[in-house]
């Protein structure tokens, strides 16, 4: 699933491609993808003649800001936005946005897990799915060591489970949690409430540092992720533990291990991240 750095990269690409365009028509071939309004035909009609003023992001959600509405889009596992080429849309194209300048934006999703919600402006912040999201670990002044300290004090869950909880921190996923915990020398299964204030402060800094670096590199193309121009991210070249099971740790040469934490495949160095 694309995490914050990948979604931010998609956002930047889309902003350069669609801002200023006016939606002339929308075609929805998989109505189940439209979660609000209930009727995909109403969704189509409400978007008609709407101009895209900017493309934002909240956690892992894209937000298209229009004249009267905000379209909230989640890519889930395999979702992608692409500007149309001369080819006919394939079977994985489920939503098509036709613009007044005769260009077209397509939403493609192999697994059909992606979602779209259309809100009247302002309502998106007080309704699901955005209202439940915590602060972001990237350019959000609310994400501080003190915030993380308060968060960890309240729970006996392991640290990885807490970091993956979008209600606690928005945008973090499996890849970047593993990488940040490695850089902070904290085991993924460590009990959050038992971490010292100093280690929590270090973790907060390493999370922010990891996310900013990943955004600068365009995200990680570890599976099928590409941005809106079909370009791969390059942060996967800097991964230390994620996907490195059985390989030597870059720092100590110990073999990177893989286990399951929070129901997710989890990578760590047993020496650098000792108990």
Automatic annotation (TrEMBL):
> Which keywords are on file for this protein?
DNA damage, DNA repair, DNA-binding, Glycosidase, Hydrolase, Lyase, Metal-binding, Multifunctional enzyme, Zinc, Zinc-finger
Q: Name one GO biological process term.
A: base-excision repair
User: What positions does the domain FPG-type occupy?
Assistant: 240-274
Instruction: Tell me the SMART domains matching this sequence.
Output: Fapy_DNA_glyco (SM00898), H2TH (SM01232)
Q: Which residues take part in binding DNA?
A: 92, 111
Catalyses which reaction? 2'-deoxyribonucleotide-(2'-deoxyribose 5'-phosphate)-2'-deoxyribonucleotide-DNA = a 3'-end 2'-deoxyribonucleotide-(2,3-dehydro-2,3-deoxyribose 5'-phosphate)-DNA + a 5'-end 5'-phospho-2'-deoxyribonucleoside-DNA + H(+); Hydrolysis of DNA containing ring-opened 7-methylguanine residues, releasing 2,6-diamino-4-hydroxy-5-(N-methyl)formamidopyrimidine
EC annotation from Swiss-Prot or TrEMBL? 3.2.2.23, 4.2.99.18
Record-annotated Formamidopyrimidine-DNA glycosylase catalytic domain positions: 2-114
Q: Does the keyword Nucleus apply?
A: no
**Annotated catalytic residues:** 2-3, 60, 264
Q: Which cofactor does it need?
A: Zn(2+)
What the record says about family reads: Belongs to the FPG family.
How this chain assembles, per its entry, is: Monomer.
Q: What does this protein do?
A: Involved in base excision repair of DNA damaged by oxidation or by mutagenic agents. Acts as DNA glycosylase that recognizes and removes damaged bases. Has a preference for oxidized purines, such as 7,8-dihydro-8-oxoguanine (8-oxoG). Has AP (apurinic/apyrimidinic) lyase activity and introduces nicks in the DNA strand. Cleaves the DNA backbone by beta-delta elimination to generate a single-strand break at the site of the removed base with both 3'- and 5'-phosphates.
Q: What is this protein called?
A: Formamidopyrimidine-DNA glycosylase
